[in-house]
């Protein structure tokens, strides 16, 4: 195990700011690494997850200039937990605003989990702006993927945690369609109900995304402040199927032709079944595909992290 690559040492941004993207939204951004280095943008998960300091350390700071930002409504972006004017295509436009603001002609796009969904949407819309594409925990947001995580599939692996997830849903009708039922709770007028629902929704994800024991995700995801934005925004996106037509990201993957890339996916990824990463790799043949044995979903799992660091190092050269 000693030869596995790990994160670069912690690093602080050399510049931070807020970008007004219209309709009342301002997004927090930061730049890390070496100004004038190889440009890259990091897209966090969720939706609604926000960036954390460890994300900065996925890149060699001596060779990269990396832009990280909190997507609309989460992290340090404002207004917090807001759903209005918060769609996939708003976020794709925000990525372009950031690229133009910093004067990059092209940049590497790195996204994991929901970040892979957003990275695919961006790259298929603006392929000429993407120098390389690194995807971890591929999620193409088909109805089958949503049903696997929120109806029947992962519930069979984690019946105890699934039971806790269903606790706020009181009727058989609600439990038959948790995404719709949770939307009513998370957007209702009762603040206490919203917060209880947010913790239950977020805890389900925090407790099923990794095979690592005591990884800390369960605790961090159940934090009330984090959970409110995470649950409201993620549910909002999933209720609307991310404003994508069914199979859009797979059907349009031919637009990635010519973009070099790497796909890293855990064999036992619970939120994101491996078959969709496999299918993407068969369409997008410019990408290396790594299916990591003994790994789940989280970027911090050793085999996954090793491949991600090797990918950013390879493209830096």
Give a structural overview.
This protein is of the alpha/beta class. The protein is built from 14 helices and eight strands. The chain has helices spanning 53-56, 88-102, 114-125, 143-150, 154-157, 159-166, 172-176, 178-186, 191-206, 217-222, 224-239, 248-251, 274-283, 302-316; strands at 15-22, 25-33, 38-43, 64-69, 107-112, 130-136, 261-266, 287-292. An eight-stranded mixed beta sheet has the order 1-2-4-3-5-6-7-8, with helices on both faces. Helix 2 (88-102) crosses helix 3 (114-125), helix 6 packs antiparallel against helix 9 (191-206) and helix 8 crosses helix 11. The longest helix is centred in the middle third of the chain and has 16 residues, at 191-206. The protein is globular. The two termini are 25 Å apart.
Summarize it:
By secondary structure, the chain is of the alpha/beta class. The chain has helices at 53-56, 88-102, 114-125, 143-150, 154-157, 159-166, 172-176, 178-186, 191-206, 217-222, 224-239, 248-251, 274-283, 302-316, and strands at 15-22, 25-33, 38-43, 64-69, 107-112, 130-136, 261-266, 287-292.
